[in-house]
């Protein structure tokens, strides 16, 4: 090819790229305008948190959230809205837990972990073995028998990405009760997975037991109560603690994922899944976890619909049931999609709170991520303050169903991480902790990404 | 040069760069650890906001803030701590403003603007001319005479960078009173520069008059009160409003900038200025504006000192007086530095709140900014979630004294912009609106930048 011809072609190509970038940029302006001026995520979140409230999978409130979510979707221009059956075991906390230091009657703030068994109805009174690490437990050997194990490992405050700090301590919650039971402990207490080191809110979350080993009651204790207990143990190593909780598995129940489809004009059989989990823990109001993720992704689609957008691919909104304690909704979703041999080309999940949007972690090849950094990031960075387009892990629900879809490009929405683990799984996770501008800015970022994925996923 | 030799040189150079980057990365880890675990910005901010409170330049509280700041600096290992005399006119709000719709006695929430003259002591009662834009005023011509001008331009909610939205409306505050007075208005009211469109907090701020034109009382009205007044005017265009406020200039007073110097080992005569303004408006507690900026920059230096760092350049911390209504502190600082022919190689300012850190706007050549994007941004982006290194404007104080120092590289700290203008210049700007992790994360970002500037500014 002659040099001139090559240059001409190159400049046509550069020109075309520039024109497309210009069109995309104009579309993003419209999306942000629509989201900030007409956004409904904040008002919908208000209804979800205040009228329905917390909604653990299997509870009547979760059913109410499902029915209401379906009615919300039916008001929009989806081609199809339906419920997908999900069977799961229902765990119920029962009456409020009680805990105190025997003698002083100094109360300790605790929450049973999801999946925990109850104490005897008259509670447990026992001495306490305190360790910093689960692995320190072994050296106490037979002394553990009959005692309450108390794992008091503080949060690593130096880590800006609080999700990483959470991961460092999460085995305390997931494996702790089984490890303690193995050594004959009568109950398991551990310092909450909390980035706040100065408040008295315990953080709940799921745990599990191991077959063949006794199940013992398992509870999280607030940071300040953990400090209080640790001080008492320093003064008197024979300090006893009273623990009482009444949680139980209530058997299998029928619940649902809520699904809505917006048919693609060009590739109707190629699906982009977007959504988050509709269940929450049974404390607080499930505002950041995950009211913002469900109301946000719904509003991202509403935003595109309001702008008269026509998708190329079929966009499927999924509100997963039961991310918090079993992930049965995502498992079912994956099984059904696999059985139908669906083509799911991309997935967007929002389950990290409704704080100011920072970007997306992307499960895709390094080459694809670099392409997005080159083509998409400039559309967001300076103007919309969204700049994180890094290779990373998908959300929990996408990760579970994605096991059947290894080639699906997955986006995990990342809002600012500083404050999330202050309120995660606590009574503090309420509507008032969500800022409207931050939430609608996130809706706009997600809607913009959805638009770009729909337009350009074939070019990746 | 032979190809092999060149390659060897290149790889030595790449290797050296990598080693330095590794050292920098380790230093940043230490800085973040120190800031999150030993940081004092949050506790100092608590004292400043709760024990001293708001502190308009010239007030006794501002003097108290100066004396206390000096004592804070004296506790650290600075080589020199001193006050720099600043003369300025003191404006005082006087007793709380009153405003209501005549007849209904419906109260309106207003704040006098800094620099405003008072109403007559018995207030002003007059009809109202409402416009959206200042420029619309002219078409009312002689009808404006004797009336209250009410500029009711809403905030542009679609702009993520709220500072830009603020800039779009700021002439309402700065030029509005003079424009209205020119047409014979008896008072000036305008919708507060607020990103919150749903609250009843007026936002104060500075204004000015024009020589030869009467000065008329000038006030900001809250968003919801503006809406209420606008509705009343729709129902009855002859609606009258009562306004009463007692603000006044109280003459010249002697105040101070607070300055501390940490002598450089290698280039003692080359100065890096860092700081923010210590004064605030006379409502709220001046927490985000600018308690976080002063306590944050002080703590950034403390962080480096605690790590045993020895600066190459002289690091000069400046708490400027009077950024809010006159910028006399920065003017004085610039004049003195100019007279002394000082070499100020770089400046860092923090005056945009204490929200989650996003990065820095940089006043430097495009080439220098690109160099920082290549060398510094990778140290922050993935791990510390700080990624904004863009060419931009300096802060207000640096901008003022920087007129004498056109070659100084200037950094303007940029925290997340979503919530700042909800509380800017209002009673809502209190300690409780600051999150400890967000603040200390910003301190670490600023300390890291200060370290990099001190180490590498000669390489730029």
Structural account:
The structure is a homodimer of 460-residue chains. Chain A has 14 helices and 16 strands. The first copy, chain A, is an alpha/beta fold and 460 residues long. The first copy, chain A, folds into 2 domains: 23-91 and 251-459, Zn peptidases (Aminopeptidase), CATH 3.40.630; 96-246, Glucose Oxidase, domain 1 (3-Layer(bba) Sandwich). Chain A has an 8-stranded mixed sheet with strand order 1-10-12-11-13-16-14-15, with helices on both faces. Chain A has an 8-stranded mixed sheet with strand order 3-2-9-5-6-7-8-4. In chain A, helix 8 links the parallel strand 11 (267-277) and strand 12. In chain A, helix 1 (3-38) crosses helix 8 (287-306), helix 2 packs antiparallel against helix 8 (287-306) and helix 8 (287-306) packs across helix 14. The two termini of chain A are 27 Å apart. At the A-B interface, helix 1, helix 11 and helix 14 of A face helix 1, helix 11 and helix 14 of B. Chains A, B: Residues 257-445 form the Peptidase M28 domain. Chains A, B: Homodimer. The monomeric form is inactive while the homodimer is active. Chains A, B: Residues 1-21 form the signal peptide. Chains A, B: It comes from Sphingobacterium anhuiense. Chains A, B: InterPro entries: CPQ, Peptidase_M28.
How is the secondary structure organized here?
Two copies of one chain form a homodimer.
Chain A: H1 3-38, H2 41-52, H3 60-74, E1 80-92, E2 98-101, E3 106-107, E4 110-112, E5 124-131, E6 148-151, H4 162-169, H5 171-174, H6 176-182, E7 187-191, E8 218-221, H7 223-235, E9 240-244, E10 248-262, E11 267-277, H8 287-306, E12 313-320, H9 328-339, E13 343-349, E14 357-363, H10 366-375, H11 377-384, E15 388-391, H12 396-401, E16 409-415, H13 420-423, H14 436-456
Parallel strand pairs in A: 5-6, 6-7, 7-8, 11-12, 11-13, 13-16, 14-15
Antiparallel strand pairs in A: 1-10, 2-3, 2-9, 4-8, 5-9, 10-12, 14-16
